[in-house]
Design goal:
Order of helices and strands: EEEEEEEEEE
Strand content: 35-45%
Largest sheet: 8 strands, mixed
Number of helices: 0
Shape: globular
Strand order of the largest sheet: 1-2-5-6-10-9-8-7
Helix content: under 10%
Distance between the termini: 29 Å
Number of strands: 10
Number of domains: 1
Amino acid sequence: MPAATGSVEGLTVGPDDGNIYVPTFGFNTQGALSPPAVLFVISPDGKVINKVNITTAPPDPPASAHMLRLAFNPVTKDLLVLDFGAGMVLKVDPKTGQATKFAGPIRVPASMR
């Protein structure tokens, strides 16, 4: 299992399982962290039931350590995560952490990086 060394940002509840999904934001008390970000899956009773690295594979751009918000698509039930650092929305498999680019690039002003 991957180590969790950063802060977390945002959460969503699974539409079918009631589990809570939380990604890391890639910062700790020493500053910004290197990829990968980590996705935690927490059962309704508070137990961590899965912890995976969020990664992409070519031809998609590399995922950053800075995941900001997430939600399940109400139609397809895909887990979509905003990769703030890479400026794209990822479709993430919550069982494996494997991600593909869903949308982007998203232009983030330099003052917000």
